[in-house]
Amino acid sequence: MASESILLSDLLQCLIECSQKAARIAQIFRDENDLFQLLVEEKSPVEKDKRVFRDFKTLADVLVQETIKKDVGQKFPTLTSNIQGEEQNSFQNSLGESILVELSDSEEDTVALLSQVFDGKDHIARSLASAAHSKDLACEKQYSSPCRIPADSIGIWIDPIDATAEFIQGKNEETDDLGIQHYGLQCVCVLIGAYELQSGKPILGVVNQPFYKKETESSRWESRFYWSLNYDPEFVTSDTLQNESQREEKVIVLSCTESKELQDMISTKYKIVHASGAGYKSLLVSCKKVDLYVLSQGTTHFWDTCGPHALLLTQGGGIVKFNEVLNATDVKNYKDLLDKQIKYSLKGENVPTGSFRNADGFIAYRDAEDVIELIELLHERGYKSRK
């Protein structure tokens, strides 16, 4: 029996609308400052990324992830088992009760479920349930194409709220002269990436900034989304990615935790900026605000990179493994880098989170020449892989 095929443009539209719904849920949580601290739960030792000093999950993460899984699964049932994300779908309320977050088609059921977490504060439970089940957050059709793909050949990775620490702290940071936020709510992103199961190649990406800009009159947050389709012969990006760089100097964005040795070497040729959130830093590359995002440490996972990776591939760039490229002797051009891309896969039951860690670090780029020049610099300076 032939596999069900779906229109890629329909899947794209679905994921964009899911990201808008996710952004609204995140905004509602941040609007409820008095309740927000009650909803933060430090991750259990089983879930915790041992390489991160303090790693949190919130009900917002779990609710966003389960909302996306529900909506995509309803429209494309074949995809349901291939939708995976960062969070487990359980949460513990302030009474110590463990609550499984599973969404049905009933908004009232979701209200009842969320009320258990909010200890009876029904107004916030109703606001969130309304957003999770809303049909009003649909946006105009972004792209139409006859291109189809077998539904059972696609996997999806979700990071429901990337830069969770910035989401929790809730600071509103001003941009610098490059238009970059170094920390704060603007660094928070919803990341959704679809990839081919056989090749591991990202084919569709959606990145949404729930806190892109604050409206002056209402003080309400405005979201912004970015998308790409990267499936031959369709190579298309959203208008929000059609930026022209006005910079004269080369800029690399790093995490502030990068080693002094690496930062000192890079600073001999590039301007260095620091920012929070793996998704946001990759987005800076896509939006041409920086040239490269370099991460030498294995502190990210598939859910952090799959969505942004699709954006960059469509732009002629990609995300390559840092240590692999650093140690290679055959990286001379664009095609050579295509062989070094991160490849994505599904996770099975009882498989440790570390199996989906980008253990080699990575370099996110738009232009292959920028990667080659950086690697040449590191070789000249005698930088050695720490793996």
TrEMBL record:
GO molecular function (one): inositol-1,4-bisphosphate 1-phosphatase activity
Highest taxon listed in the record's lineage: Eukaryota
Residue sites binding Mg(2+) per the record: 86, 159, 161-162, 304
Pfam families: Inositol_P
Cofactors, names only: Mg(2+)
Similarity section: Belongs to the inositol monophosphatase superfamily.
Protein name (record): Inositol polyphosphate 1-phosphatase
Lineage: Eukaryota, Metazoa, Ecdysozoa, Arthropoda, Chelicerata
Designated gene of the protein: INPP1
